[in-house]
Every structure is written in structure tokens, then in C-alpha cells.
Amino acid sequence: MPRFVVVEGPNGAGKTTTARVLAERLRATGRTHETTETTRTPFGNMVRAQEKWLAGRPLALAVAADRYAHLDNEIQPRLRAGSHVVSDRYVPSSLVLQRIDGLTVEEIWSYNLHTTPPDLTVYLEEDPETIRQRLAARTTLSRLEKTGSPELELELYHDARAFLGARGWRQIVIDCRGLSPEAVADRIHQHLPF
Ligand SMILES: Nc1ncnc2c1ncn2[C@@H]1O[C@H](COP(=O)(O)OP(=O)(O)OP(=O)(O)O)[C@@H](O)[C@H]1O
Ligand SMILES: Cc1cn([C@H]2C[C@H](O)[C@@H](COP(=O)(O)O)O2)c(=O)[nH]c1=O
């Protein structure tokens, strides 16, 4: 049975790296599609590129529109065709980033109410100082990366997890401190039935 798995966590926690290693591992068990939000479609690329201009409510709505199109055009068709889907970011990212951008949880949720719950949502946690060093090594930071902090993102991810847990989402937390990407993927794989 195909599974929809979402990898979440603060900027620089290791989402993209982990999602890639996990997808590679799942390929040994069946067809696996790796994807990301915002999407790499022309619309998603426009949202990413316009992040300085699209802020607050307009950004929340644009990200949600990209997510619904992602579900309709990519995630659901792949699941129906029998592929596992691993997504780097999904609804929890909005419950964190759009809050940093000034919206309430209730407003953000209202834009995401009709999204499909994943089979498993994985929250990566990492030492804030390690994350800070990783971000400091980057040549450019996005507006929201500059506005937030690893500590604030970790706190808002805790809130997101409680909020989505109360709505029946199946979620796990992986403490990545001292773990290689392969070891993190191993721990995630242990929670999947294949
Ligand atoms: N488990 C790990 N151990 C050591 N280094 C890691 C680990 N996971 C990721 N990294 C390194 O940390 C950096 C950030 O990783 P990555 O880009 O995957 O994070 P991210 O959460 O996707 O960031 P962003 O949300 O900003 O795109 C990269 O240099 C990556 O090689
Ligand atoms: C999914 C999602 C994305 N965003 C914004 C924030 C960043 O500009 C990008 C994500 O970039 P990254 O390379 O994955 O760090 O999109 C957002 O504001 N809300 C969301 O839910």
C-alpha cells in the first residue's frame, strides 16, 4: 500500500537531506516519488521568488493554493498509481512559517482545512546552535529565515504537532542530534510498515 510521508522541521534541520535519503531507501520497497513545497512548478517557483513581496495573508494563500494544486496534480495521482510519496514540507510548515509571518493558527488552518492528512508526518529536531551554524554557512537567507530563529521554529513546531495531533494526524519526532542522515532515515523507516 503506497504511503504519503512528510518531513518537517526548522530551516536547516535537515529536511531536504533526510527526505532524499529516505526516498532512496523506500525505492527498494516500491516506486517512490520525492517532492517538495513550495513546489518546483512555475507557480511554486514564483511564490518562492516573490517571498519578499508576498507576505502575511497573501503568502499564506499562495502557499495553500500551491499545496492544493500539488495534491491534485502530483501527490494524489502518484499515490493512486501505487507510488510512495515523500514530501519535504507540507501543512505543518504553514503552521510555523505563516505564524512567524503574523497569522493566527486558526486563520492558517482555515486555508488548509481541505488538505489530505499524510500517513506519517516526521518532525526533525536538532540543536539550535547546530542549525544556526548551518544557516550562517549559507550565502543567502530568505526573509522568513531572517525573521525567525531555530528556537522559535522549534517552539512553533511543538504547537503545530499538538494542533494536528488533536485532528488525528499520525506524527513522530526524531531527535537528529549526533545522527547521520542515514541513521535518521533508518529511524523513520522503523515507523513504516514495509
Ligand atoms: N543528519 C545530519 N547530520 C549532519 N549534517 C546534516 C544532517 N542533515 C542535514 N545536514 C546538513 O545540514 C545542512 C542543512 O540541511 P538541509 O538543507 O537538508 O536542511 P533543511 O531543513 O532542508 O533546510 P531548509 O528548510 O532551509 O531548506 C546541509 O548542509 C546538510 O548537509
Ligand atoms: C511550504 C511553505 C513554504 N513557505 C516558504 C518559505 C520559504 O521561502 C520557502 C521554502 O523554502 P525552503 O527551501 O523549503 O526552506 O517557501 C512558506 O512560507 N510556507 C509554507 O508552508
Automatic annotation (TrEMBL):
What EC number(s) are associated with this protein in UniProt? Answer: 2.7.4.9
Ranges for domain Thymidylate kinase-like: 7-143
Provide the alphabetized UniProt keywords: ATP-binding, Kinase, Nucleotide biosynthesis, Nucleotide-binding, Transferase
Q: Which domain of life is it from?
A: Bacteria
Answer whether the UniProt record assigns the keyword Nucleotide-binding to this protein: yes
Q: Which reaction does it catalyse?
A: dTMP + ATP = dTDP + ADP
Question: What does the record give under GO molecular function?
Answer: ATP binding; dTMP kinase activity
CC annotations in GO? cytoplasm
Class of enzymatic activity (EC top level): transferase
Entry-linked Gene3D superfamilies: P-loop containing nucleotide triphosphate hydrolases
GO biological process: any one? dTTP biosynthetic process
The entry's function note states:
Phosphorylation of dTMP to form dTDP in both de novo and salvage pathways of dTTP synthesis.
Q: Which family does it belong to?
A: Belongs to the thymidylate kinase family.
Could you tell me what this protein is called? Thymidylate kinase
Read off the lineage from the record.
Answer: Bacteria, Bacillati, Actinomycetota, Actinomycetes, Streptosporangiales
